[in-house]
Amino acid sequence: AQSVAQPEDQVNVAEGNPLTVKCTYSVSGNPYLFWYVQYPNRGLQFLLKYITGDNLVKGSYGFEAEFNKSQTSFHLKKPSALVSDSALYFCAVREGNYGQNFVFGPGTRLSVLP
Amino acid sequence: SQTIHQWPATLVQPVGSPLSLECTVEGTSNPNLYWYRQAAGRGLQLLFYSVGIGQISSEVPQNLSASRPQDRQFILSSKKLLLSDSGFYLCAWGEMPYNEQFFGPGTRLTVL
Predict the structure, then answer these.
(1) CATH number of B3-111
(2) Which end of chain B is more exposed for a tag (fewer CB within 10 A), N or C?
(3) What is the pLDDT, as a whole number, of residue B63?
(4) Rounded to 5 degrees, what are φ and ψ at B83?
(5) Number of continuous H segments (helices) and E segments (strands) in chain B
């Protein structure tokens, strides 16, 4: 069965500093990995995905994520955080070609302090 | 381009009343459609998904049901709401096998 862990419930970072939101996963086959962001009372917005190829994936709003197969991780990063990046972030995994559905992590709340 | 609509945006209903939430997608054909519930602004629980008209799969036993009467229409229903049905309901669509899911704006349901 697929599973996703986001070990940090809350991440605080100062504006202008680099940020990392952690995600680890478990699947039987090849993982398809995704990051989403959610602002209050809104739907989830897609940020980026890893399907295959380069382990460093670049996405929207200056975010990037690094796929690490040996550590089964897919951490979200940004070189310089903005106050407007404050939101709830979800990691999700789908199991290769066989999985119809996503499994979402519990979410990490990011607060960027001015 | 593709868009996804949900309505209503907010809903307050008494316990025991019926429910109907609607989701429609534009700009794509034969999408996979999904209903999620999000409680207390946190994790998402997959309720139902559909790979085609009339094809519904339920992920958890519950007080809710789903239907897909048209290719791009997905409806979430209940005959009698419970207090525990309160939450933020999100509809999403996606294309297999590589693509991400795209989410609607959500419906905030409060059952009193």
Answers:
(1) 2.60.40.10
(2) N
(3) 87
(4) -55, -35
(5) 0, 11
